[in-house]
Write a structure and sequence with these properties.
Layout (H helix, E strand, L loop, with lengths): L1 E6 L2 E5 L5 E4 L4 H4 L6 E2 L2 E3 L13 E2 L3 E3 L3 E5 L2 E9 L10 E9 L2 E5 L8 H6 L5 E5 L8 H11 L3 E5 L14 H4 L7 E4 L2 E2 L9 E5 L5
């Protein structure tokens, strides 16, 4: 499995057979920078905000997964779970979908714009291999809230997302607050993750560079 970071909360997952899924494609006007146009077989949408639900940069005619449920496509399975975009059961910002992908025997969970901690949900995704987790606060959990998810889920690898960069046009925290909660030796930087299996080691934080074609 190959995992590329397209920016904000958008990733591309590619299986060994070439099945491709893109998560939460974003609108340049909402985020402040353009998403590289990509082709895929399926797109997941965690919620209907323009920084997570913009198909303009998606090539082809992919399936759009935007509701709770389970499905399979070739060598990939996808399960989604209902959650909340805030800490008052959706009263401020509505609902949010968390997606779990099983690709080449590796489990990847995309948390969308999760806005609160949910113990029951944490148990469903516990010990996933890769956790794609917002850390910027304001519209999602902040650094401390994200750390709580990490401690409860115990993933092998955490990939931070939805944090402030020099390109962003709206104000959320940068990734440094989240990284400061871990030892320096736990943090790695990479252009992408290419995984055939995930060794059983303490949780690593993978800071991925944004893919630009």
């Amino acid at each position: 499995m190959k995992l590329q970071y397209l920016g904000h909360s958008c990733f591309r997952l590619i299986s060994e057979m070439g099945t491709t899924i893109v998560t939460d494609p974003f609108d340049e006007k909402a985020v402040g920078f353009a998403m590289t146009p990509v082709r895929c077989d399926a797109v997941t949408v965690s919620h209907r905000h323009s920084d997570h639900d913009c198909l303009d940069s998606i090539l082809g005619n992919p399936a759009v997964l935007d509701s709770e449920g389970f499905c399979t496509a070739d060598d990939v399975s996808v399960e989604s779970y209902a959650s909340f975009h805030d800490d008052v059961r959706g009263a401020k910002r509505g609902g949010n979908l968390v997606f779990r992908f099983d690709v080449d025997g590796i489990s990847v969970v995309h948390m969308g714009d999760i806005g609160c901690f949910d113990e029951a949900l944490a148990q469903k995704i516990r010990q996933c291999d890769v956790l794609l987790l917002p850390v910027g606060g304001t519209f999602t959990v902040d650094a401390a809230g994200a750390k709580r998810w990490v401690d409860a889920v115990c993933p092998k690898i955490v990939v931070p997302m939805h944090y402030k960069t020099a390109e962003h046009s709206f104000n959320i925290d940068g990734v440094d607050k989240f990284l400061s909660l871990f030892q320096d030796t736990a943090v790695i930087e990479a252009d992408a993750l290419v995984l055939s299996d995930v060794p059983d080691y303490p949780t690593r934080i993978a800071l991925l560079q944004r893919f630009c074609d």
